[in-house]
Amino acid sequence: MYPAILKNSTLHYFDDHSILLTDKDNYILNDVETYIIEKFNGHRSISEILKEIGKDLNTYNYSKIESVVMDFINNKSDFLVLNKTSQDMQVKTSGIKNAKVPINIIISLTNKCNLKCIHCFKNCSYQNNNHIPYETLINTLDFLKNKSISIQLTGGEPMLYDNFFNILSYCIDNFRTTVTTTGTLINEKNIKNFKGVNSVQLSLYSHNKNIHDSITRTPGSFRKTILAIKALSNMKIPLIIATIVTKSNINYIEDLIDTAYKCGANSIRFGTLIPYGRGTSLNSWILSEEETRYVELQLEKLSEKYKNKINVITWHKKKSNININSKYKALGCGGGLLSWCISETGIVKPCEFLEDTVHPIGNIKKTEIKDLIWKCNFQKMPEHLIKFEKELNKENTSVKNMCEEIQEYYLKYCSDNNVR
Ligand SMILES: C[S@@+](CC[C@H](N)C(=O)[O-])C[C@H]1O[C@@H](n2cnc3c(N)ncnc32)[C@H](O)[C@@H]1O
User: Fold this and answer.
1) Exposed/middle/buried for 287, CB within 10 Å: 0-12, 13-18, 19+?
2) What pTM was computed for the model?
3) What is the distance of C-alpha 182 from the center of its chain?
4) Distance between CA atoms of 4 and 56, rounded to whole angstroms?
5) What residues pair up with 81 in beta bridges, in sequence order?
């Protein structure tokens, strides 16, 4: 028998363990399991593997080795295959052993935007002009290639970044790439550059042109976004529509799903308002507990009704399914550990929703990303979040309203008893 790992999997080395990412699920493997699985390339038979391990460990006690390896094979049938013949099934690897290289990086290329969305947590506008210098960005990506797996390009409007298509092409060649955009700048000439992206996430706020345009505060934006959705769909590029459920569209969820489906989107993801930036004062957008429960039920129902047409991503499904080792005391979504965000100022931080000053890991304009990897930790995060919370409270909002993961983190690590 020739053991191998499920096709399309990636073994990401992370600190003293590894994370196996498969199409089915993700699995944390300890150091011994990581060592064993590295031997499973589809070419080596079980007896060859046992001999090799015996040689590595300088022992002929094969029965002990055999029991450990066979236990591993029997317990990990979820992601292992046993072939009768030898065949090349070498698993792809990423990360660095004994270093904490994130799996995913969200890069906000610029805070400039051609729309003026009423709710924007980043206060983006056409007057803003922070952007990551091209050279710095390319050097950063160059280090991350073959180490991180996926990149999400966002903004502001990422397409307003001067060298956007060069960066996009570099990312497509080296990472699983997602672009978050309004699509309003996509046209017949530039659309070909999106070929090869893993997905494009487009923001659409209503099935109704006037409502959408009143949220983006940009007449004509609905028409352009819809045209982009249709054009990308014609190119068979996987599309996710991102939208926000508010008090006023709660009864039009199905209309939006239907519009997204008819324009050719593959998925639609519903979020809620983050009361931050321009979103701080939009109290009328915040759902009550009762409304939240209603939306949850609606989404469950509609996800079933539309299951053969479009993937309706319910709130429950949205959560990260990568288990984070509790020893890191990290955010439950992996922010700051498995996923980093680089803001348009060059600041590396745990997540997009946290301001640059809250818990910066460093700045790629000053420190090379390879050096930041060693600096990343959560020791001071509780203290920093408490300080941030006090600032937010002055504006009548709270870190606890940002997202479930930050709320959970705050309650777990930032109460008086937990802060050291
Ligand atoms: C900041 S925008 C940047 C990318 C691009 N310009 C766009 O609009 O899709 C990324 C996403 O964040 C969402 N967003 C912005 N402010 C938000 C807030 N206060 N609450 C929830 N989502 C927000 C937008 O709706 C959009 O889908």
Assistant:
1) middle
2) 0.94
3) 18
4) 20
5) 4
For atom 6 of ligand 1, the residue with the nearest CA is 157
Residue type present at position 38: E
β partners of residue 151? 105, 177
Pocket of ligand 1 (CB under 6 A): 113, 119-122, 154-157, 180-182, 203, 242, 244, 271, 273-274, 276, 279
C-alpha to C-alpha distance for 415 and 409, rounded to whole angstroms: 10
Which pLDDT does position 210 carry in this prediction?
97
Which option is the CATH number for 2-97: 3.40.720, 2.60.120, 3.90.930, 2.60.40? 3.90.930
Q: Which atom of ligand 1 is nearest to the CA of 108?
A: 3
Q: Return the residue matching tokens 């099934």.
A: 89
CATH topology of domain 104-318: TIM Barrel (3.20.20)
Q: Whose CA is nearest to atom 18 of ligand 1?
A: 274
Q: What are the tokens at 93?
A: 């690897």
In the predicted model, is pLDDT for residue 266 greater than 80?
yes
Pocket test for ligand 1, best of 180, 211, 267, 283 (most atoms within 8 A of CB): 180
Domain with CATH 3.90.930 in the chain: 2-97
State the pLDDT at residue 420: 44
pLDDT digits (tens, 9 = 90+) for 353-375: 999 999 999 999 999 999 999 87
CA 398–ligand 1 middle distance (angstroms): 19
Cα–chain center distance at 341? 9
Q: Which atom of ligand 1 is nearest to the CA of 277?
A: 19
What's the pLDDT score for residue 376? 78
pLDDT at 323 over 90: no
Query: Could you identify the atom of ligand 1 that is nearest to the CA of residue 275?
Result: 19
Q: Chain-wide mean pLDDT for the chain?
A: 93
For atom 16 of ligand 1, which residue has the closest CA? 120
